[in-house]
């Protein structure tokens, strides 16, 4: 049982950019939550792992960060380079080592909404820890596991790969895992969780979609966001 190495988003990368730029979940839930957990990025080296079309990277660069991004999708990397000309972006599969990045070379790592597409999550997280400086932090977001369970049912605690067709006809394959497994994977990879949030929509979202704003302000059907730091014990 695995997701496999196929760059699933490559076939609809341009559509995804149009969707995520102003889409409710991306623009009003996940991006604000991740940027808040990253804190002040001015003058800091930030690795944007699974950077997609560069929407997070553009905001990081605008806030003064020195951004390096990677993604498994060649088309996503093209879009990121167009959006953030001053950044460094390259195609890379996180199931492979980050052998082009030296130890302790990043102040911060952002890993937004991509953990569930990896088969060997612990190895990838270990690599992200390796490239982090000792005083650095990883900000990771994922789909809220209760939202996954509400859609798919079954045994919440049983990790499994599922396939979904999203509203625009996008076919996706990814892991469903309980929250405790994500916490264990971070611990095994050498991280300590500093903060865990269940993002609610930012106030600006109320004008975009009042009904969705109200629902996602009260139900755990959106995302989780975690700030984790390297465990000094190794």
UniProtKB/TrEMBL annotation:
One protein family per Pfam: Methyltransf_11
UniProt domain Methyltransferase type: residue ranges: 47-140
Superkingdom of origin: Bacteria
Coiled-coil regions, chain positions: none
Annotated GO MF terms: S-adenosylmethionine-dependent methyltransferase activity
One of the GO biological process terms: methylation
Annotated keywords: Methyltransferase, Transferase
CDD domains in alphabetical order: AdoMet_MTases
PANTHER family for the chain: METHYLTRANSFERASE, N6-ADENOSINE-METHYLTRANSFERASE TMT1A
Protein name: SAM-dependent methyltransferase
Organism listed in the record: Amycolatopsis endophytica
